[in-house]
Amino acid sequence: MEKIVEQALLYDFYGELLTDHQKQVYEDVVFNDLSLSEVAEDRGISRQGVHDMIKRCNRILQDYEEKLGLVEKFVKTQEKVQEIHRLTQEYRKTEDKELVFKIEEISAQISRL
Amino acid sequence: MEKIVEQALLYDFYGELLTDHQKQVYEDVVFNDLSLSEVAEDRGISRQGVHDMIKRCNRILQDYEEKLGLVEKFVKTQEKVQEIHRLTQEYRKTEDKELVFKIEEISAQISRL
């Protein structure tokens, strides 16, 4: 997975467990593309402080994922849903009823994730 | 939702964020149905200590859910998957192709959860 997508997913799932201050700095640097120096000036902390905070936030988010694995589960669910979508599209064209049985199987797989 | 089911789901999602000690006591009382006194004796703590720990663990798990809402999301996903399952079963009987379009809609709903 691309690093920025992975960071966005991790933040999406676990961001609420960071402090407000951490969230603001993290969003500015990672999602709003501000430079470390800009953020440092805005927040009245050192450039190194911003750098350390981002590193620390990444570690915190990664630790939650290692314990809970919810991003991985989410990605797998999305893949299965995409598969169902693909099968329904194919059904539109072919009306092959075997496809519906495949859909059934995949929905069972989702419920076991 | 039944309280024990809710506790089980909360524990399933966020249990790894408790300490090992908290996990052991929580499992003994909530899932293994041991009495507070039994667990207190096993662990060498007071009965009140066990009681407080369970209360505190419930609070911690509930706080994570309030911040992250992953149990709620999981329950909704499961409901949608059940709906897909029901529709595929109905399709088996009727071969009504409209049902497949409904399935498509529901899978799109899952991916937006």
UniProtKB/TrEMBL annotation, chains A, B:
Gene3D superfamilies in alphabetical order: Winged helix-like DNA-binding domain superfamily/Winged helix DNA-binding domain
Pfam family, one: UPF0122
Keywords: DNA-binding
The keyword DNA-binding is annotated on this UniProt entry: yes
GO molecular function ontology, one term from the record: DNA binding
Coiled-coil features, chain-numbered ranges: none
InterPro entries, per database record: RNA_pol_sigma_r3/r4-like, UPF0122, UPF0122_fam_protein, WH-like_DNA-bd_sf
Domain of life of the source: Bacteria
Role: Might take part in the signal recognition particle (SRP) pathway. This is inferred from the conservation of its genetic proximity to ftsY/ffh. May be a regulatory protein.
PANTHER family from the UniProt entry: UPF0122 PROTEIN CBO2450/CLC_2298, UPF0122 PROTEIN YLXM
Family from the record: Belongs to the UPF0122 family.
Name of this chain's protein: UPF0122 protein QJ036_04555
